[in-house]
Amino acid sequence: MPDSLSNASEKLGMPPGSLIHVGDVLEAESRISVIDYDHEHLEESSIQSVDELLQFRKKETVTWVNIEGLKNVELTELIGQHFHIHPLVLEDILNTHQRPKFEEYDNYLYIVLKGLSLETDNDSFSVNHEQISILLFDEIVFTFKEKKDDMFLPLIQRIRSSTGRVRSLGTDYLTYTILDTIVDQNFVLLDSLDVKIDSVEDELLSEPTTETLVMIQRIKRELIDIRRSISPLRELLSSILRSDTKLIHEKTRIYFRDVFDHALRITETIDSYRDMLSGLLDIYISSVSNKMNEVMKVLTLFASIFIPLSFIAGIYGMNFENMPVLKWRWGYPAIWGVFITVPICLILFFKKKKWL
């Protein structure tokens, strides 16, 4: 597990807008990568200081600044000073326990959401959550990520290939593609969970064990956690669509509606998976109950066979002198004949009733 740099309790008593990183440290160092482009040219670079970003404010190109790693609080503070970002927004960027939301300011938009990915290790798995903050300006887009990964690689390759709308449209369309990339990652996650659910179902119908129950409960718990991260997306995207901001052009809004539809599909898929798991849990309980019934049936049949034998043996085991056939010469063989005949008759009777 990553080490925690600080937690929310350390901010108690501090004024609003105090910049302290809250959450797990997933990257030891912060990295700044810049992609500057229009329909004719593309420039990629890694920069070391915020001052180097100022040159992109005066250009008529689209600039995407991606910051990976939030440990460097001073870096976030400097970006806020140079680009006049509200201290409360900076505070939210550094607090990685934010709920997905959309906020509108005078010259920029602030969006925060969760990026989800599945980490597997043999039979175990875990869903990783990463907070991603987006700042949309007229000429530049900032993304703040907790760690370095390949989440945006498909989008970067699209930009490099100089095909499609992304190279010819503005920062609002770039923001849409970033949102779309993050949301579509959830489909990959759900596909992986679907495979695990199918595996659990096959195991359940063949030879269920206590590990099967543990896996069902774990997937259900992860789905609840995923839904908690995904559900606010609908409200977030609805707020974007309702906004009358000039930073999002009318022709771009239709693409945001597409992301909204994706969020709905993801939520519906999660709900259907939860229903499936509830059904699998019922099947597991029924399977265990049926196995217990089978065991009880076998024990009952054995008891039914031995009860009359025990009754007969108990009668002739009493210490009375005057008992019928007590001194009969053929008494011992006769009683064995009864002991053999009674079970055979009972077994034939059980089979006739289809209890065996």
UniProtKB/TrEMBL annotation:
GO terms for cellular component: plasma membrane
Pfam families: CorA (PF01544)
Main location: membrane
CDD domains, per database record: TmCorA-like_1 (cd12828)
GO MF term (any one): cobalt ion binding
InterPro entries in UniProt: CorA_cytoplasmic_dom, CorA_TM1_TM2, Mg/Co-transport_prot_CorA, MgTranspt_CorA/ZnTranspt_ZntB
Keyword Magnesium belongs to the record: yes
Residues annotated as transmembrane: 298-318, 330-350
Keywords, in A-Z order: Cell membrane, Ion transport, Magnesium, Membrane, Transmembrane, Transmembrane helix, Transport
Signal sequence region: none
Localization per record: Cell membrane; Membrane
Membrane topology: Multi-pass membrane protein
Family, as annotated: Belongs to the CorA metal ion transporter (MIT) (TC 1.A.35) family.
Chain's role: Mediates influx of magnesium ions.
Official protein name in the record: Magnesium transport protein CorA
Name of the encoding gene: corA
